[in-house]
Queue: 2 jobs
Job 1
Amino acid sequence: MSKSIEAPWWRTYPISAIQAGVWQIGALWMQAQVDEGELIIASGHDAEPDPPTWRYDTVLRDPDATPAIRLVGISEAIALRPALLDKTVVARPVSAVAIGPGAAGRFYMSTPVFIEWVSGDRVLYRAPSTQLRKTWIGESPRSGELAYATRTSASTVLSRMVEHPGRAITQVDVRNDGDSLLRLDRVYMPMEQLALYASTAHGLWTDGLRLRAVDGAIVEARIEALEGGVERLALPEVNPDRGSLRWVFGALFDGLGKGGWPR
Amino acid sequence: MIEWFATHWQAITRAVGLVVFGLLAARWLGRLGGRIAARRGTAQTAMLTRRLISYGIYIVVLMTVLSTLGFDLKVLAGAAGILTVAVGFASQTSASNIISGLFLVGERPFVVGDVIRIGQTTGEVIAIDLLSIKLRTFDNLYVRLPNETVIKSEVTNLTHFPIRRFDLAVSVPYGTELGAAREVLLEVARQSEHALEEPKAQVLFLGYGESGMNLQLSAWATRDDFSIFRYALAEEVKRAMEVAGMPIPFARRDLQLTEPIIVRVDGGPRRGARDARWSAEDSKT
């Protein structure tokens, strides 16, 4: 039995109601079954469905799937909720976006989210909506930080962005005060510093980003809270830090300015 | 004896008081020093600071107590001088280990929890003490290495940096186009679950080998994923090379014979004139 795909997938499920259930959220499937007081969760990734959607079935996908976790003593309700990734995401637009000298542009990018199983305030289990790969951000293998890498569709037109149940859209405003073309080949999204929102159409959004670049280097970076028509689902994991925002976005553009990774 | 106690009870009381106070002070100040050191340094710095403070206070308390009880410390100092020379000769190795331990703590080439390789031994550091460091090897053996040995040896810290590169040597048959082999290897790295997207994987040409052309695939992974990545990459490369029609060559020798040789096959069906001739030759032998 398939349930509505119009409603958001993030909500509370009474344990008594979960005897068997399968959630398909984009490429991610999560299967839950209650067996002798144990809540058994398995998950995995399929190919990305087209169009991206989510659905819930009460028929198990694979009763013998290897459990990712077995939870005992869970008597309360379980909530499924989205959460932004806990590290910076290096998003590579499928097709590059460029901003001319002296021009400003707004574009939209989407990044995967975690789907979390929550009981009370405790996160019991979580899985990313798409398979994530790790990458390294740093001037050398000696110093830097780990991040996630993803491919993303970037568009300057909001109507062309497909709302995906497992991805959050970020609005990025860029002003190019330099004399050369600014190419957006990869974008460093500080996900842990952004809040998560749900739109009235049940799409996921993050705080917006406003950047000013001169000669390929970010000279100003600001996080802007979304307002109007959205409900905030989660606060940022860490407080936004202007300094770190600048360095994260410093490597935003092709060529990285003159001196490599600014920090 | 009772007389001595009667005349010295005040000194004895003071000495007992000093011992109690000294023990408490050593413990408290040692902990305080350890806590402050822990904030600025590592666990072993804290441990060393705690011990140095405690032992220092113990020595001062001991001297004070002896002095209070009326012992002549000058005599003790003289005896200590002779004792020091004797003990010094006997404990050269220990002293060397202690000093090496101090250098290890100061230099910090590794900390507790790191995985290091010293000589033939690889393991996780579980303790750095005054005389030795203790390792737990991956087959769960407990290895004690004197600090002096560690200081003198080449130490490789396998977990110092968050990411590591794995170099996988791959040989491809001579009939293979190098560019195609390179692409296959890079694609494996791109698709590998544990390989980092950046730093990017590279393929190097190492040379022409006996059985094939030797390449090296260098890809990066986090130190936590490294063990599983190493195995998975080797497996994925072998599979991909076979699928691409570039099976990894094994050692082979081509023999060129200057004269033909006669091969006799024993058993099996024999048909035709040649078989008949061979039968005749067989019957002769």
Job 2
Amino acid sequence: MGETKRVTEAELISQAANGDRTAQRALYDAHVDRVYRLAFRLAGDEDLARDFTQETFIRAFQRLRDFRGASALSTWLHAITTTVSLNGLRRTRRIGARETAIEDAESLGTERRVADPDLRDAIRNAIDRLPEGYRTVFVMHDVEGYTHEEIGAALGIQPGTSKAQLFRARGRLREMLAPFAGAWSA
Amino acid sequence: MNDDEKFDQWLVTAAKEYHRPPDDIPRQAMWEAIEGTLNGARVIPVAQNGWRRWSTPLSAIAAALLVAIGVGGGYWLRGRNEPVAPTSVAATPSRSPATNGTLDVALQRHMADAEALLVAYRAVDDQTDAHVRSWARDVLGTTRLLMDTPAGTDPSRRRLLEDLELILVQIVQLPDSVSSDDRALIDRSLSRDQLLTRLRTAIPAGIASGT
């Protein structure tokens, strides 16, 4: 089953690299949700997330012949997504400038510990205040569930560096969220 | 469970709310924009933000100021009836009004460093040694830093830095035992983007690699 899927994606990649729009659309459909989620988590802004997602796929399709196949296509796409998003954010300097859709998060089953709006704002502000490298690793690992190997491949760093940055990010967050210590020590 | 573990566990749960994406992803609208670009149509960015709104007028103002200073300086020199010494103009890359001399020098040194790295990379045979990868990681970091400065806002420099960044990420990600295919693909990207040529064009004579 897995083998069949892999071959199918390999064929799609080959066709898409030759400009086959149907194959490109199939690859887009298969990966767009994860790419958009990552872009949105990093940008915190709907319009920017759309721009970054579009740019990611445009660059990917234009460079698909360079895809080595040594890693999964998703890993390669996420590397482009982080590059495009971080570059875009540096340009626009709009990290955390808009309200997020936290208020609409009713479908999550984790609400009871984060229901306090002050705490939610404090968490968001604390994450926004992390240095870019820490924030990126933290968002990819703790929020979106990437492994350190995937993060390393996407950011061009060693998995060990990713672990160290996550450790430091959590440490900084703990300092910044100290006034809310009761929320987790209870 | 100690306090650290409690905090980490709580944080992972709490942080799921951070920049939570909407449930409705605009898949079709994004695809149409992508397809339009791939078909050669111009794409209008969704995010019309402050930087984009102001960059063009600011560039125009900066260009106008430069012209005014040039013309005014000319009149001032003529008014003093002194012969104007011929100015020796070296062949330097185009200069963005937004950049200053220090950044220009830093950027040029970085370009020289990047060129030296790419030459070293090509000189290594089948294996890309750890030194080259470590060097590439350093250059990658500096490239990203420079992209965040006014020096990185000039469109042609920006494109050069972005192309350089992509190549560096590929080199950094190379495994210990590199296949000839891996190298061939990077080499092809290097040739297609004419990266070395563009780097050399951007480096004025006399600037040497800082390493």
